[in-house]
Amino acid sequence: MERSDSNDGLFNENDFDFVIPPTPDTVPSQHNRCHQDASLPSWNDDDAFQSNILFNPNNELVGINHDIIDTLAEGIIMWMGLCPQPSIASYWKKSEIYTSKIPKYMARKRFEIILRSFHCCNNDHCPPGDHLFKISGLLDLLLSKYKMARTPKESMCIDESIVPYVGRLSFRQYIQNKRHRYRIKIFKLCIDNFYTVGFRIYAGKDAVVGQRLSTRIITEMAEDYLDIGRTMYTDNWYSSYDLATELLKRSTLLVGTLRANRKNNPTEVIKKQLKRGKVIAK
After folding, report:
1. How far apart are CA 210 and CA 204, in angstroms?
2. Which of 91, 92, 210, 235 is most buried, by the most CB atoms less than 10 A from its CB?
3. What's the confidence (pLDDT) of residue 17?
4. Do the beta carbons of residue 221 and residue 147 sit within 8 Å?
């Protein structure tokens, strides 16, 4: 299926409300002399200019535009996720072991500088206690694009995905008996062919009184896909009598394993001794 030119990429200029620093192609004509005037900054890859970009005390020209953002986000960062290397610098190594086409599109020092300077929000508007405020706009944009690309069929599944992380982060988790002890938990809503149509980063306790966290996560993440007769598949951390009741009210079935000690479980079902191939319903 062919796409229109106005939606060729994952992002476009109307998706972001932050201001891209001016470049020689976008600033007024009196600033276009930066290539001839040595007193004005111009882009190069030496270490002497790197500190000016990183700290940028005088709001100098950084040398990026929307095309550079598309190259950075759609191409380089996503490709790194698909083809992991030991370090960022490995993608620019000349050894055959680390073969990559990324150096054709951007120099390593320029990539690292833009990546460090990339910002998606205004810190002055951050509400207290919102750990995801700085990336919430980007997350919402990604979710909207994911939902536009695919429409779920009858079956959906929700589960957790773990991202190992050893840096400083207030909502990272520590699980002693796991291979990756420090991690970030992400709830994912998936459909056929393992496609993700929704995700939510767990940033701390946000349960509501009278409602289990797992029930709230499913009802909020699947809100756009309820009331149509779909089926939700879950594991025993999510499955409960209350969740099944809530989904039935929204014309959605629930299939999953069930913990015997879950609240409101029917006694007849829990105590029944079943043989292989037999079922019981209540």
Report:
1. 18
2. 91
3. 46
4. no
Q: Which two tokens stand for residue 3?
A: 């796409």
Mean of pLDDT over the chain: 76
Beta bridge partners of 174: 182
| pTM summary value | 0.68
> Per residue in 213-259, pLDDT tens?
888 899 999 999 999 999 999 999 999 989 999 999 999 999 998 88
Backbone angles phi, psi at 196, to 5 degrees: -95, 120
Rounded Cα–Cα distance for residues 31 and 33 (Å) = 5
Instruction: Round to whole Å and give the CA distance between 228 and 187.
Output: 22
SS3 call for 157: strand
Residue 115 Cα distances to 68, 106, 108, 161, 167, angstroms: 11, 12, 10, 25, 17
Residue 254 DSSP SS3:
strand
- Token pair 């930066």: residue: 34
* CA 155 – CA 178 distance, rounded (Å): 30
Selection from 257, 185, 252 nearest residue 219 by Cα:
252
pLDDT digit string (tens) for 112-126?
878 877 777 888 888
Q: How far is CA 50 from CA 56, 104, 110, 226, in A?
A: 10, 20, 9, 51
User: 69: part of which helix (H) or strand (E)?
Assistant: helix 66-70
Sequence letter at residue 175: I
Helix (H) or strand (E) holding 103: none
Query: What confidence tens digit (pLDDT) does each residue in 22-37 have?
Result: 443 333 333 333 333 4
DSSP of 212-226, one letter per residue?
-HHHHHHHHHTGGG-
